[in-house]
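User: quick one, fold this
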Amino acid sequence: AAKMERMFAHPLIGNLGNGHGDAVYHTCISRNSLLPLLSGAADGTVHLWDLPTRSCVATLNAHTQAIKGLVFGRDDDFYSCSNDGTLRRWSVPQVLAASSTVAEASSGNDTNGVNKTPLDTWRIQGSFQSIDHHWTERQFVTASDSSVQLWSPDRSAPIQTHSNLWGSDDTVSVVRFNPAEPHIVANCSMDRGI
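Assistant:
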């Protein structure tokens, strides 16, 4: 009983800085390292966090609408997708370099949104709902209003698009690569389909 009381005496381990200005929809960590952490919010901003210091090291004005998915890639990059129909790839070293430049120019004040140019931008009709990166290859998969797309960062259009998802015409809400069988993709849709 004493252990349980101690465990529940401080259930919150800690928080990260001042957080976002709007609701946080997604977070992700790298598959290669515990640092850094990304968070995406309803206002289209992405925060890059330093976990040991619990501080925000960069804030990106990434999209014009809500962030619907974040995932790290394999090349010191990460991807963000949004309700605004855009998918963007960002370089972690470039974002950190731009943040330090902004911080030096503002004499150490908080970086109020780095307007860093993404490495790539893809656009679709409709909105993105989810994104996941392949575990070993340079490919990623997205879920949109009624389809699942497989992408390569080297192409401007999807490699494959699957729009007839076993009779479901509803919005695909989540898509994930299987870590054990990396060429298998699973998706969930709003009509309770998997």
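User: anything notable?
Assistant: Residues 105-111 have pLDDT under 50 and may be disordered.
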